[in-house]
Amino acid sequence: MIPRRALPLLFAAVCAAIASESPAPSAALPVTVIRAGRLIDSASGKVLTNQVIVVEGDHIKSVGPDDGGPIVLGPNGGRYVDLSDATVLPGLIDCHTHITSQPENYYTDIFRKSPIDVATTSHIYARRTLLAGFTTVRDVGAGEYTDIALKRAIDGGKVAGPRILPSAHTVGATGGHVDLTGFSPSIQFKDTSGVADGVDAVRFRVRQNIKFGAEWIKVAATAGVLSEEESVGAPQYSEQEMRMAVEEAAMWGKKVAAHAHGTEGIKRAIRAGVASVEHASFIDDEGIRLAKERGTWLVMDIYNDDYILAEFTRMGYPEKIIEKERLVGRTQRENFQKAHRAGVKMAYGTDAGVYPHGWNGKQFRHMVQWGMTPMEAIQAATVNAAELLHQSGRLGTVAAGAFADLIAVKSDPLADVTALEKIEFVMKGGEVFKDQIAGSPVKVFE
Ligand code: ARG
């Protein structure tokens, strides 16, 4: 049933959808008309009130003020979603996930699970991510191309999940963050891995990832926290090795994201031309200046620390790993504030998969606590993330021509950003996956 008061706007909107620039009305495409009480316009940073959004197929056809009109439905009917008491935003984007898995126990995860175990459970995490309002993720590292298989299942309409930009195996040095370190030299896995030493080996790994479907290349520029090598900040690649990754990726039309906690490795990665530095924990003034100069994005996962310190000892992680996290946590947050103040480009990225998928929205609160306005934090997860991912105009915005990826909450996230931890309406590509506001039927998987 369409509420009567909605009919004028439905008519206006359906007419608008039909009177499009295309000469033949695309009769086959389903039309959804959404009334948004408040719409967060991520591009302008403004809030628009009483807007009508017309969705045709998987795209947004038009967005404009509700100006009423005669009570006649369009010839093909249409679905109406009443979000007139809610705040509508573009679907959120997480630029740093590991969507295929999440930790349960340090040794069990490493020694008892095969990539097939990972593959058979990854759809659960994909669904949780989508229902949390994250309609797109850049996935920065997964084993055995499980990210690419998951993406295929989602894009094929077989399982619920976000749009995924996968990067397959993280490319990194022997003994470094992506290698299996800390165990007996006799232990070897048969899996494919991203370990590569020297420019030729790096080139090979980049090509191999792209061959099997990677859309981004991830390199480990420095040591990490959740791996057993001795230091968290030590450089693990030369500038030349990373420059090779950047040049080779560019040859295939791809860009590079660099995992880098350490001061020197961050600078090497920026000089080598990566598009984004992940974590950026120990970035110094020179690193901040370089990032500004080069337009390099920082993707800083500043919620992670809380979860690692609270849960990872229980999950059997060695004390040396917990100790590394203690070194990183607060400094990373202080440097987030510093980099933001300096005007470095920042996109939202959480490292979800270190903590439970579906909790991706918990970082907003921290970004606001460490200096961003709620609008800036939302922009980091929408327009800015879309810019980093080269999807401006297609993702991260509610505007004509963009994918119909929309979310909504009843309250006002600009007054309390934690509203984004409980998203109540999710549409991806014109299909409703969750609606606790207007009660629309949701997509069913047969
Ligand atoms: N994946 C990252 C690593 O192992 C997690 C770092 C999390 N800590 C943090 N404070 N952001 O290095």
Distance between the termini: 25 Å
**Beta strand count:** 14
CATH fold category name of the largest domain: TIM Barrel
- CATH class categorisation of the largest domain: Alpha Beta
In the predicted model, the low-confidence regions spanning at least 5 consecutive residues are 1-24
What is the strand content? 15-25%
Number of helices: 13
CATH hierarchy: architecture of the largest domain: Alpha-Beta Barrel
The helicity comes to 25-40%
Explained architecture:
By secondary structure, the chain is α/β, with parallel strands linked by helices. The protein has two domains: 31-90 and 397-435, Roll (Urease, subunit C, domain 1); 92-388, Metal-dependent hydrolases (TIM Barrel). The protein contains 13 helices and 14 strands. The chain has helices at residues 7-18, 106-111, 115-131, 146-155, 199-211, 239-251, 263-272, 285-294, 304-311, 319-342, 363-369, 374-380, 383-388, and strands at residues 31-41, 46-56, 59-65, 79-90, 92-97, 134-139, 163-166, 216-220, 255-260, 276-279, 297-299, 406-409, 425-428, 431-435. It has a seven-stranded mixed sheet with strand order 3-2-1-4-12-13-14, covered by helices on one side. A hairpin with a 2-residue loop joins β2 (46-56) and β3. The longest helix is centred in the last third of the chain and has 24 residues, at 319-342. The model is unreliable at 1-24 (pLDDT under 50). Arginine binds at residues 224-226, 279, 301, 304-305, 308, 325, 328-329, 332, 351, 354. Arginine (ARG) binds at residues 224-226, 279, 301, 304-305, 308, 325, 328-329, 332, 351, 354.
